[in-house]
Amino acid sequence: MHTPRLLLIGMPDRSHSREVMLNLKQRGFGIVTVDTARQPCFSDLVEASLHVPGLKADVVIPVVREYHQRYLIDGVARFHELSVPIANEVALALELPHVAPELIDVSTNKYAMRSRMSACGIACPAFGAARTVKEARRLAAELGFPVVIKPQVGGASFGVTRLDDMDAVDRFFEHAAIFWEPRIFIIERFLPGSEISVETITFERPQHIALFEKPQILDGPFFLEHTFVTPSRYDQVTVEAAYAAVSSMILRLGLQCCITHTELRLTPQGPMVLEFGMRPIGYPGSLCVRHTTGVDLIEAMGLIAIGRDDLTHTRPASAYCGWRYLTVPRAGRLAGVRNVEQARGLEGVVSCHIWARDGQALLLPPQGFNYILGYVAAEGASFDQVCARLEQAQAAIQIDVVA
Predict the structure, then answer these.
(1) From CA 345, how far away is CA 380, in angstroms rounded?
(2) CA 231, CA 215: separation in Å to the nearest integer?
(3) Rg, Å, the chain Cα set
(4) What is the third-level CATH fold of 126-189?
(5) Which residues of the chain have pLDDT under 70?
(6) The domains spanning 126-189 and 319-403 adopt the same CATH topology
């Protein structure tokens, strides 16, 4: 029997990536990685690791094509947010299952995303794009304060900042050099309300798998989200309204055969889509989804990549599950992280990983957004119990920072 061979491009060299690899192997996939590291990160789990000097299409495609001619690749997975475009380009070049390139651009370029959503009549905040402080000041005046500014490309709320006046606009651009080129920023009208995410699998019609609540207040000036729990505490009317907003977005944009991770704000006027990605929610979100629904988003990612839709369902293991990012107490340089094993042994903790390395520079906004060291995930019988277990695990972990 043929083992489907799955290509993963640019997998981060982090300990939790091993969990993703093991999951795929347990689901019957063979794995080939493409990375810039000369020493393979997961050599004991993969069939091959293809080294490339960079993750541009003209570099990656010839290397992958040569391997594909010798060892058949069945699909290219869209896993990590920053590697979604190149993954789809490679799949297209090899004539493997892929989505239309313009849809990938819409899902990874925030300005293209908002422009397409607006053109399709999808409710989203009023917005514009700026490269310079002069353009940003003009846009902010047109939209009316407060506004939110964010880089055109990026994730994990990197750089997302609320601006309340022109002085705040000027201060933001004083640190613009921390962002990737090209430095194009989306400026949008600030929307009051809580934030959620909806995880959806779409073959022909959207199937909403989970809704994550973010219990922390995210009103700015920086949107350092850290806690995510599913299912939420919202009533069924609110949940159904969020699902309806995501379904409308997917159908209007013509998305099919994909996983979508959609961020929304629950405003007084109803749920409003902020942005979406054509990938699973960042890990360990997929672990939490599997615990509470029995649906494995990582398996779904692999199946979609090879053009199959025979997703399995297992019995949910937990009523509630969530995770908390472990964040730095202050700026400086990481000197060590202690008591991780102690945290892993606490009741309800299902996963805990640290990816930051000793000596790493830790920067807090507005100078930088390198504030996440790792995560802890926990399950429980209630929403509040999960939050309490996450707090307990975080309190057990000692983070040493030096100047």
Answers:
(1) 15
(2) 12
(3) 21
(4) Dna Ligase; domain 1 (3.30.1490)
(5) 1, 156
(6) no
Pairing relation of β-strands 270-277 and 206-213?
unpaired
Distance of alpha carbon 162 from alpha carbon 338, whole angstroms: 34
Domain ranges (residues) in the chain: 5-99, 126-189, 319-403
Distance CA 68, CA 74 (A): 9
pLDDT at 39: 76
Fold assignment, 5-99 = Rossmann fold (3.40.50)
- Type of residue numbered 4: P
> What distance in Å separates the CA atoms of residue 99 and residue 65, rounded to the nearest whole number?
19
Please indicate, yes or no, whether the overall pTM of this predicted structure exceeds 0.85.
yes
pLDDT at 204 (0 to 100): 84
What is the reported pLDDT for 252?
96
* DSSP conformational letter for 363: B
Helices (runs of H) and strands (runs of E) counted in the chain: 12, 19
Whether omega for the bond prior to residue 366 falls within 30 degrees of 0, making it cis, is yes
Residues 73 and 65: their CA atoms lie apart, in Å, by: 9
Is residue 378 within 8 Å of residue 291, measured between CB atoms? Answer: no
